[in-house]
Automatic annotation (TrEMBL):
Location, primary (coarse class): membrane
Topological type in the membrane: Multi-pass membrane protein
Keyword Transport: yes
Name of the protein in question: SSS family solute:Na+ symporter
Species whose genome carries this gene: Amycolatopsis jiangsuensis
Keyword Electron transport carried by entry: no
InterPro entries membership: Na/Glc_symporter_sf (IPR038377), Na/solute_symporter (IPR001734), Sodium:Solute_Symporter (IPR050277)
Classification via Gene3D superfamilies: Sodium/glucose cotransporter (1.20.1730.10)
Family: Belongs to the sodium:solute symporter (SSF) (TC 2.A.21) family.
Keyword annotations: Membrane, Transmembrane, Transmembrane helix, Transport
Lineage: Bacteria, Bacillati, Actinomycetota, Actinomycetes, Pseudonocardiales
Name of a matching Pfam family: SSF
Gene Ontology CC annotation, any one: plasma membrane
Annotated compartments: Membrane
Molecular-function GO term, any one: transmembrane transporter activity
Length: 500
């Protein structure tokens, strides 16, 4: 029954992907990577929550509470709430920068804003190192979830099926597939989480004679634990949109569409009480699990009939496949547009598809033969993606930041993140990612203060190119004039320095 339901849902998702691709069939690289920048607010919302609430939400959040107690939930929920608040103001500016430079990847934005090919390459390398294990983690998550539900699939079969389905999603309609399949995924994922949470409540008093494990932490924090929670909330909320946001912000049709979608993002947090209930049921009724990551699935298996487990498996499978496809598309776009030199725009869609296939094969091989190594690297994903934050701040808010300082800060931040991760020094509870990010900012903005770059218009300080039906053209003209004025001023400053 479980296999039948999962197969039926995956087939339905492929049909939905084909249907979604009818609008952009025959389009170029813009249509493939960012949907021709035409997504309305409701589609941006589903694309965003589809990538944010992944298979890690279903298995990671309950396992964190199971293993570390309620303190884990405090900083986890805290950073998401702060990220949504920041996103309301920042996400539209990120879209504005992408629109201004006709960018489809973050390295596109940095390379064109600073007119620097080396910075484009450094940004591309940083994001590839961070995102490859993130995509591969989806392979591992799918394997863990399906195995915990008792499906008789080998690791090779799991990653092979996942890779083929994710590739089919992207080939038929590019970024439109993750966006529309996310709607189907949310239906099954929400149904699964609510079903397990309610079942845990209804069965809460049963089998108490087997309960033996206390909750492994208190509900209050102080000292290093409190410092860690507060610094992690700040650190991860910055990475939420600056690090991951480009993939689900760039396809929007306007700043207003981005802002409208962020307003409704917190609504999805209603799933967390049900995940908490499932975690505490596991603490009480399934103490001592060898792998805490299985607590949600173990709870589901103990409480739900087979047909309902099929719904849980379908929701988990779509969650993993969706993020895997979106990550593969992002990596493919950076390889074809930023890493490979001189690929003609007409050929970029074909080369992006090739890069997507190569990544899926690489991820599948690493999942089977080097999953432990890649999971170690995965823990660095947030710390590495954080190194693009100073560059984004310079693009949005600063006028004279030097491209060399941004690149140097990014390289220093990556090296320091790896060193701190391996060394694990005592920092009084401060999140080590915040330390590497602080060093990056010091080099980026301190270096630019000493050796300022040419004047460039800060994206946040100039009007949006989309001002509504009547203001669209005027807004674009205003920006163009501001860019030209800044160029003239930069040239004048350079002449003045040469003359003086």
């Amino acid at each position: 029954m479980i296999v039948v339901i999962v197969c039926a849902v995956v087939v339905a998702s492929l049909a939905l992907a084909v249907w979604a691709g009818r609008a952009g069939r025959g389009g170029g690289i813009s249509e493939f990577l960012v949907g021709g920048r035409s997504f309305p607010p409701w589609l941006i919302y589903f694309l965003a929550v589809g990538e944010v609430y992944s298979i890690g939400t279903m298995i990671g959040f309950p396992s964190g509470i199971y293993a570390q107690g309620p303190g884990y939930g405090v900083w986890f929920l805290g950073y998401i709430l702060l990220a949504y608040s920041l996103g309301y103001f920042v996400a539209p500016l990120i879209w504005r920068a992408a629109k201004r430079y006709d960018a489809m990847t973050v390295p596109d934005v940095f390379g064109r804003h600073f007119a620097s090919r080396p910075l484009e390459l450094v940004t591309c390398a940083t994001m590839l190192i961070a995102l490859i294990p993130w995509g591969q983690y989806q392979f591992i998550g799918l394997q863990v979830v399906l195995s915990a539900l008792g499906l008789a699939l080998s690791p090779v079969q799991c990653v092979l099926i996942a890779g083929v389905v994710a590739f089919c999603y992207l080939v038929v309609s590019g970024v439109r597939s993750p966006a529309f399949v996310s709607i189907l995924k949310d239906v099954f994922m929400l149904a699964a989480i609510v079903a397990v949470g309610l079942a845990a409540v209804l069965a809460g008093g049963a089998g108490t004679e087997r309960a033996s494990a206390p909750v492994p932490a208190t509900a209050t924090m102080d000292g290093n634990a409190l410092t860690f929670a507060l610094t992690t909330i700040v650190f991860q909320s910055l990475v939420f949109y600056f690090g991951f946001g480009g993939s689900y912000v760039f396809p929007a049709r306007s700043e207003r569409a981005v802002k409208s979608s962020t307003v409704w993002m917190p609504l999805y947090m209603l799933v967390y009480p049900f995940l908490v209930l499932a975690a505490y049921y596991g603490v009480r009724h399934h103490p001592g699990l060898e792998n805490p990551n299985t607590v949600f699935m173990v709870t589901a298996r103990g409480l739900l009939p087979d047909w309902a487990l099929g719904v849980v498996a379908a929701g988990a499978a779509l969650s993993g496949l969706l993020v895997l496809a979106a990550t593969a598309l992002g990596i493919g776009g950076m390889v074809s547009r930023n890493l490979a030199p001189n690929v003609r725009p007409a050929a970029q869609r074909r080369w992006t598809t090739v890069a997507v296939a190569a990544f899926l094969v690489l991820g599948a091989v690493l999942t089977v033969y080097a999953s432990t190594l890649m999971l170690t690297v995965l823990n660095l994903t947030y710390m590495l993606l954080a190194q693009v934050v100073p560059g984004w701040l310079a693009v949005l808010y600063a006028r004279r930041t030097a491209a060399g300082a941004v690149a140097a800060g990014m390289v220093l931040g990556v090296v320091l993140a790896v060193v701190l991760y391996v060394w694990q020094p005592s920092l009084g509870g401060v999140n080590s990612g915040l330390i590497s990010l602080g060093a990056n900012m010091l080099v980026t903005f301190g270096g630019s203060a000493v050796w300022p770059g040419p004047a460039r218009p800060a994206v946040a300080r100039h009007g949006s190119p989309v001002l509504g039906r009547g203001g669209r053209l005027r807004g674009a003209q205003v920006v163009a004039e501001q860019v030209a004025a800044a160029d003239r001023q930069g040239a004048g400053d350079a002449d003045h320095r040469r003359g003086g």
